[in-house]
């Protein structure tokens, strides 16, 4: 009977947590909807447009901070804050390299978080699938490297190619490393968010460096996948922290 009561209590607590998390994410969903409602292809770069674009990511950072505490400033919350800085920079094309640098720092912070003990319960439980993880890591490296090689001639034609070409190469290494470490966590939301982030950045690169002719609604594709990726990474971090607490309680009992 005690076991049944404990199980029922855990289910109620998880359900209540999911409802509370969904409510705390409402400002993110509303601000994302506002961004897509206000955005137009001929939108003039301004402080207001930068603020509207960065607002959803900053609100996600606030949610992670409220659930996981101040230590997440050096983790996912910090990565979201640097991502918001990148969002603002990318509003102005001349600040593209600065934006890329801000996102590179975000990926470093995500990577450090995915290596932390918060995700240890997932990585340890997936040790039997280590060969699959190694295969997926190899696929990521091959795909990332092939995409950079494909992009290379277009980078050479871009303004500031002397900075852009190595900078994009370093950025590809960092985002690929972040996705590889997300595989290590074994957490579905974290892994999905990291892979979708790569898809979003690949789509952005194909458009910014004029690899493809102008795509109708191309910007919408980039931003939908971007916001979705950040949402999944943030939710994954909150869930990982919650499940780590559950795991610690289980070990003590």
3D architecture notes:
This protein has 253 residues and is mainly α. The protein has one domain (3-252). It is built from 10 helices and no strands. Helix 8 (161-185) packs antiparallel against helix 9. It is globular. The relative contact order is 0.11.
Descriptive keywords:
253 residues, mainly alpha, 10 helices
Topology:
Blueprint: H1 2-24, H2 26-38, H3 47-68, H4 76-91, H5 96-114, H6 120-125, H7 130-157, H8 161-185, H9 188-208, H10 218-252
Helix pairs in contact: 2-3, 3-4, 3-10, 4-5, 5-8, 7-8, 8-9, 9-10
What is the number of helical segments per DSSP (H or I, 4+ residues)?
10
Task: Let me know the average pLDDT.
Answer: 88
Portion of residues in helices?
A: over 70%
Unreliable sequence segments: 247-253
Please give the alpha-carbon distance between the first and last residues. 17 Å
Question: What are the secondary-structure elements, in order, as H or E?
Answer: HHHHHHHHHH
Radius of gyration: 19 Å
Shape: globular
Largest sheet: none
Work out the strand percent: under 5%
- How many DSSP-defined strands? 0
